[in-house]
């Protein structure tokens, strides 16, 4: 059975809004993912999130050069155009991508400007795990005190992200999607710190 292009995508959009307004909160999009019947070289949850957010008015970039098939599928299902990392509205990071390539993309992606902060990139990141534990801690708007978030990405990833968000309102927004069809968001307004063990 195929997904309902209206009902299911609206469902995912509401989940994304909920998670974006409550950074670090983990939401499930398992129900519509169960109805996915696409043959794709990424998780069905990542494709469903891309189908919810991308359309013919935006551009996207996939970090690794090994994903030509995924580029074609996302273009086909969303009508979005592929673009360089410097121009892309959305940056897609499939699971297992090279850390150095991710770092390079983080340094060169769009972060907007003081006049047009909305001209920034949103990242869709496949993560090995999403749990509310670990040493990475989020604080800021939408969080009562602080919330831990385990994404499987090392501290160096978060340092690179923090460098791109240190001149608010410029920055990037992160949407993590794991293999259990869970999502969690870290908008540019969120402060991310790493607690030392012990």
What can be said about this structure in brief?
The protein has helices at residues 7-21, 30-34, 44-53, 68-78, 99-108, 155-164; strands at 27-28, 59-62, 81-82, 90-93, 122-127, 136-139, 147-148, 173-178, 182-186, 191-194.
Helix and strand topology:
Blueprint: H1 7-21, E1 27-28, H2 30-34, H3 44-53, E2 59-62, H4 68-78, E3 81-82, E4 90-93, H5 99-108, E5 122-127, E6 136-139, E7 147-148, H6 155-164, E8 173-178, E9 182-186, E10 191-194
Parallel strand pairs: 2-3, 2-4, 4-5, 5-8
Antiparallel strand pairs: 1-9, 6-7, 6-10, 8-9
Helix pairs in contact: 1-3, 5-6
Task: Give structural attributes.
31% helix, 198 residues, alpha/beta, 7-stranded mixed β-sheet, globular
Q: How would you portray this structure in words?
A:
The structure is a single chain. This protein is an alpha/beta fold and 198 residues long. 31% of the residues lie in helices and 20% in strands. It has six helices and ten strands. The strands form two sheets. The chain has a seven-stranded mixed sheet with strand order 1-9-8-5-4-2-3. The chain has a three-stranded antiparallel sheet with strand order 7-6-10. α5 (99-108) links the parallel β4 and β5 (122-127). α1 (7-21) crosses α3 and α5 runs parallel beside α6. It starts with 6 loop residues before the first helix and ends with a strand. The model has no long low-confidence stretch (mean pLDDT 93).
């Amino acid at each position: 059975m195929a997904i309902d292009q209206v009902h299911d995508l609206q469902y995912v959009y509401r989940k994304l809004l909920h998670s974006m307004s409550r950074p670090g909160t983990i939401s499930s999009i398992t129900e519509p993912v169960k109805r996915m019947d696409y043959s794709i070289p990424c998780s069905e949850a990542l494709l469903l999130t891309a189908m919810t957010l991308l359309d013919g008015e935006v551009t996207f970039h996939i970090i690794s050069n090994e994903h030509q098939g995924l580029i074609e599928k996302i273009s086909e299902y969303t009508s979005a155009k592929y673009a360089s990392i410097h121009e892309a509205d959305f940056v897609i990071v499939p699971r297992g991508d090279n850390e150095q390539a991710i770092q390079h993309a983080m340094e060169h992606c769009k972060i907007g400007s003081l006049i047009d902060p909305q001209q920034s990139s949103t990242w869709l990141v496949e993560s090995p795990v999403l749990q509310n534990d670990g040493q990475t801690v989020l604080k800021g708007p939408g969080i009562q005190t602080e919330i831990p978030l385990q994404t499987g990405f090392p501290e160096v990833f978060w340092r690179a992200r923090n460098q791109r968000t240190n001149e608010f309102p410029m920055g990037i927004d992160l949407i993590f999607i794991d293999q259990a069809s869970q999502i969690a968001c870290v908008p540019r307004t969120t402060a991310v710190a790493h607690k030392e063990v012990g």
